[in-house]
UniProtKB/TrEMBL annotation:
Keywords recorded for this protein, A-Z: DNA-binding, Transcription, Transcription regulation
InterPro entries: ArsR-like_HTH, HTH_ArsR_DNA-bd_dom, Metal_resp_trans_reg, WH-like_DNA-bd_sf, WH_DNA-bd_sf
PANTHER family: ARSENICAL RESISTANCE OPERON REPRESSOR ARSR-RELATED, HTH-TYPE TRANSCRIPTIONAL REGULATOR KMTR
The organism's taxonomic lineage, starting at the top: Bacteria, Bacillati, Actinomycetota, Actinomycetes, Kitasatosporales
Protein name: Transcriptional regulator, ArsR family protein
Amino acid sequence: MGTVRFGVHDVVNIRFAISPLGEAVAAFRAALDPGRHAVHLPWLRPAVALLEDRGLARRTAPLADLARRGALPDALTPPPRCPLSEFEEELAKAPVDAELAEAVRAWWRAAVAPHWPRMRALQEADIAHRTRQLAEDGIQEVFAHLHPTLSWEGDRLVAPHLRQSGRDFDGIELGGTGVTLAPTVFGAECRLLAGDGAAPPALVYPARALGTLWERRDPAGDGLARLMGRSRARLLAHTSSPSTTTQLAARTGLSPGAVSQHLAVLRDAGLVTSHRYRREVHYTASDLGTALLHSP
């Protein structure tokens, strides 16, 4: 039985984050054991083929050796610190030797980075949903819907199968640090990552709507494209979760300059809203934009 006790300060210090480094390691584990990740079959087929490539197999050998022995260091799955972390930023802070770092980097570039915009969009959509749920219904409802095995009892989060760093634990007192909630696209269970002093513990949980991750669909319907132009329709579709100009450019293939121009038009029309987070501006479809996207 795993339990995590929350004090008053822990409840107010709940945050959300995404870890590209953690997702890269989880993706590698999935590729080594594809039978347990059928939902990712469209990605797994080419990913498993990549593992059989001699050149990539040689570069990722240090990672593969540790993964097959179940000896991956906790440093490769650190508690994420913010929703805007980049892979290289996290890897640079991970206390691992250069050989292992290069192995993870080679895997990331070959198998994960090409699909990262799609993966991250799903995670950001999850965070947007949970954040709204937290504001409207409170933390108890958030935990009640993170995973069927989780429950909230008094001041404790209880989960029979919750594990920390691959091990069972009797209970954890957060002690005011709070906890980071981190959605993952690779994993059907919840895991608790121990805090490292600079970051509080993190609860990793399966992101919502994983079944839609690899669906092939045109995000801009023909009718909407005829109304506002295909580029603007595609951009509007990709703002279902908060996205920056750079992220939208990567997802649509448009230049950052073109994305900025189209977003200005969409914002003036009331179809997207914008808000600043640190140094970045995030764009999200407004209620009107969402209704337009889902209109028949």
